[in-house]
Amino acid sequence: MKVLDLLRLSTSNLFKRKMRTILTVLGVTIGVASIVVMISLGLGLSRSLTEEMSSYGSLTSVTVEDSSNTYYYYEDEGSSNTTEEKHLDDDAIAELAALPNVEQVVPMLRMDVMLKSGAYEGNYITLYGVPDGYLESQGAELAQGTFPVGGNGQMQVLYGNQVLSQIYNPKTMSGYWYDGTMADLDLMNDTIFFILDQEAYWNFQYGGTPEGGEAPKMPKKHIFETSGILAGGPDDYNSYSYNIYCNIDDLKALIKKEFKNRTIPNQPTTATGKPYKEIFYNMLYVYTDSMDHVKELQTTINGMGYSARSDAEWIQQQQTTMGYIQLVLGGIGAVSLLVAAIGITNTMMMSIYERTKEIGIMKVLGCDMRNIQGMFLVEAGCIGFIGGVVGLIISWILSAVINMLANTMGGEMGLSSNISYIPPWLALVSLVFAVLVGMVAGFFPSLRAMKLSPLAAIRNE
Amino acid sequence: MKAGEKAVIQVTGLYKVYKVGDTKVRALNGVDFNIHRGEFCAIVGASGSGKSTLLNMLAGLEKPTKGKIVIAGEHMETKSENELVAFRRKHIGFIFQSFNLLPTMNAVENVALPLTFQGMDKSKREKLAEDAIKLVGLKKYRKHKPTQMSGGQQQRVGVARALVVNPEIIFADEPTGNLDSRTSEDVMNLMKKVVREQNQTLIMVTHDNHLAEYADRIFHIKDGKIIKIEDKRESAESGSVESEEKE
Q: Would you place residue A211 in the very low, low, confident or very high pLDDT band (cuts 50, 70, 90)?
């Protein structure tokens, strides 16, 4: 029997029983639509989650911290495990940059500073030294001014958009965090003093003169050139908004000059508590080429004696969670498709009972048994296909409606992208799946039809 | 029986036993006969005599319990169901009592159905079907659906459908059982004429002795055994009814 004739026979059978075909197709339609919409929700959620994660920081970087920055609970028990503390210097950068899959190693130098301007002050604000061009490459946006550039004698600083909220008036106790009033400062133009040695400052302010020693001195106040302010209001958090940035080499030189031979805050010390001669970086950002390599890289770096951390684990956890959510959503949809599949089986079984005689005649007239089976499989597959196509169209409509609703009222939820997302592969897979479900549902009935006795055609009723 | 003529059907020692509860029912109890090409044979017997069982086994719709059936040189008893279907498709035409035309198809499509199963092109099979319909005198009705035709016309379509594959043998199971006597005669005459013209072999099962008179040979069957074979041709030649007792 020719395939075309087989198709013609099958489709004419579907047409003959229009109402039943329509009802069965409706079942598949609902099944496919619910699966596709559910999965599209899962995909949309996972996509907006990925976008959100990347706004918190790079998803492709490993952060290597100086071991003195991390908390050691076993410090008193001596360095039993660590043979040698590895500090982050230019050699370390070279070593890490040589690792496979590493694209870039960015050093960071940190210094907690105090800001003073008129009646206002801000304590423990973090000043980061970064290489020129780093902030631009990370996509930081300026509200005004330019990014700081080093090496021109005068150190330039860039304020994060939330720095101002850290500054308060200690006399009146007014500030953003106290009574909601923003410090009346123009960071671009007002003179702002930076105090690097805060310990000395507190000693000068409140500490007495130690016995036999000299009275504490007021530490040096610095004035830096303001290069710019980052974009965003006092409530728009990003990973830069609370910090001040400057060129890393400028900061290094400044710290060296400021603290000569004294213990430098945020810097490692020797076993005897003495400061090292050189200034070490507080942090290295190791950028890798893809998210998949982060975990592996982190393990490698830790194995080298550094203390590395990354968001990989967290991201992986999030992805697993999203996977579960998608599975549950898909499962809910799958239940309705299962019901639809049972509907197909039922329809085909009924059809076979009705057509027992017809099938018998065909067998007596010499219709190949596989053709009979094929006829029923094609019928069931057609129901699946039509249901799949209609279901997809409905899914697209539903998806558009969901996105419209979500976008009109979900703006404050911070979901920037559509929460329902049907990629082309989902459409294709669901269509193939619908046809497959139809065929599987029709398989048992088709087997039954194939095995029907031709004697049914002979019997006279 | 003329010597040298090759038998189209050879049946030897055919038994069919049904188990009904604990008792065994012998529907066929040792049947032997040969049928030659171009013969029109009638199998006559009362209800429950085993005639339908015999026909079903000749057409490969049922398996014999014991015995051999050789049709066109091929053993039917050893074939699988699918092989039997393939065999019917190529070598056998079938005329049913209740016509068994597919209600959704018109006359031509119904006649062409066996050719569809053979995988023949649409244009070719419709031409052959039209020819067969002309042969049974239904040219005017070729686009009619079965419901738009009388019983006699439907059975003519059935005859055309059996003829269209140009089979080795045509089986007819009570072909006039659902027709009135006048139409029955028409259909019988048509069958006889067509079979004669096309040199087809026709085996007809009936309970009606009168209809059996149309046949060349009549097999009388009772309790699963052939009790008498009448040869109308010989009797016509010799002028006397010759009967053959079978044990």
A: low
Which A residues, 358 through 387, put their C-beta within 8 Å of a C-beta on chain B?
A: 358, 361-371
ipTM for the whole complex:
0.89
Q: DSSP letters along B101-135, please?
A: --TTS-HHHHHHHHHHHHT--HHHHHHHHHHHHHH
- pLDDT per residue as tens digits for the range B18-63: 888 889 888 999 999 999 988 999 999 998 888 988 999 998 888 8
Domain of residue A452 covers 3-54+317-459
Amino acid identity, position A338: L
Is residue A265 domain-shared with residue A413, that is, in the same domain? no
Nearest Cα neighbor of A113 from A23, A249, A223, A1 is A223
Residue B149 pLDDT greater than 60, yes or no? yes
Same domain, A389 and A451: yes
> What pLDDT score does A309 carry?
82
A447–chain B Cβ distance below 8 A for any pair:
no
Contact A363 B113 (CB under 8 A): no
Do A281 and A347 have their domain in common? no
* Residue A380 and residue A245 in one domain: no
Same domain, A37 and A123: no
Length of chain A: 461
A7 interface with B at CB cutoff 8 Å: no
Closest CA to B164 of B206, B104, B196, B120: B120
**Which among B52, B116, B174 is the nearest to A1, CB-wise?**
B116
Task: Write the pLDDT tens digit of every residue in B171-183.
Answer: 999 999 889 989 9
pLDDT-based confidence at residue A64 (cuts at 50, 70, 90)? confident
Do A33 and A75 belong to one domain? no
Q: Are residues A289 and A404 in the same domain?
A: no
CB B40 within 8 A of CB B218: no
Residues of B in contact with A370 (CB under 8 A): 82
Alpha-carbon distance A385 to A21, whole Å?
12
A76 secondary structure, DSSP code: G
Q: How do residues A74-85 score in pLDDT, each as one tens digit?
A: 343 343 344 456
Query: Number of A:B CB contacts under 8 A?
Result: 74
Q: Do B61 and A369 touch (CB under 8 A)?
A: no
Please state the pTM of the whole predicted model: 0.69
| Close Cβ partners of B223 (under 8 Å, ≥ 6 residues apart) | B26, B29, B49, B50
What are the tens digits of pLDDT across the range A241-279?
889 999 998 888 888 888 876 777 777 777 777 777 788
Residue of chain B nearest A372, judged by CA positions: B117
CA distances from A62 to A55, A56, A103, A312 (A): 16, 14, 11, 8
* Domain final residue pick, A254, A275, A310: A310
Which of B52, B61, B82 should be substituted to probe chain A, the one whose Cβ sees the most A Cβ atoms within 10 Å? B61
